[in-house]
Amino acid sequence: MAESAAKTTRTHRALAGALSIADLRLLARRRLPRAVFDFIDGGAGDEVTLRDNEAAFRDWVLLPRVAVDVSRRSMQTTIAGNRSELPLMLAPTGLAGFFWPSGEMAAASAAAAAGIPFCLSTNSVASIEAVAKAVPDGERWFQLYFLKDRDWMHALVKRAKDSGYRVLCITVDLAVQGRRERDVRNAFTMPLRPRAATILDLARRPRWLAGVLSSPPGLGNFETPDRRHFTSVAQHVASLFDPSVTWDDVARLRELWPGPVVIKGVLHPDDARKAVEIGAQVIMLSNHGGRQLDHVPAPISALPGVVAAVGGRAEVILDGGVRRGTDILMALALGASACSIGRPFLWGLAAAGQEGVTRAITILRDELDNAMTLLGTAQIGDVTATHVQARRAGPAWA
Length: 398
Prior knowledge:
This protein has 398 residues and is of the alpha/beta class.
């Protein structure tokens, strides 16, 4: 009992000392086995896009206005037609329950407490129903991949609808899984297959291992007796997901959902127009965290073109690379209605469960509030294109 209390105290101290999302990443790295950490942290190919997602924010600078009354501020906004306390949401991320026991419930609870949306992944460890039961009052979205088994896919849609999920998020950029070399080198499987190369690493991570042994993770929305075996994520995707999907299929699926629909995985302006034409209320601008096709644009780089193509007919959520409150501010100034975070909250989750997710949200909230104040914007609606410009705007001789 005393040992457990001491560990809890150390965790609280570590969280209190985490001043940035980068600090949470370091805490997660200390707790997770390398193969599991790399699954969160890694990207496709040479990870050029993975790095660009963050680095591309440096292509923009903020233009503050002074002598503006910012004594009273509000970060409230609407996302997909519902009020949110922040222009921020938790992205759909697979296997959250593998990083911390009941990880999906922990993340959904933290989001509900913060008054922001949480999106459950098709590839969640906890089932649709389990998360809804644990967090009945949160703003819950359900993310769906296209499955070869259409009956099963339609059943997932019905289960989400019956469980009170308000928004359907259709992901369209996973025809096959990207080539994630870290996962191949680590022989990452779900559940984690013990290997000589990883046994010592697992022994050094007793807290994570204890959590997994006490609550063996599976794939809650795909659990059947014949699917309880070691499988790589690439094998899982290849066996179940459908690479033949067209916009006609997306349009038919959209008709099954009575509420708001998000199309996630868009980068090209023409695809954004297609999404609007089939009735999507929200475009989630995303390259899957740099985990699919390498050498594609960072979302912040693609944002101006997509916003122009949408022309106000749908909201645009930026997903990818957000690590600071100033990143959120830049995205808002360039036309996004909100931002979505994946790795930042997963690092918090892996470090300390629900408290860690809360810490990630708090860090970004406090940074955003500080940045809005210094930018001279008291409300989210005050942030406009006049508050941002390209770092290298205009000719070099101007």
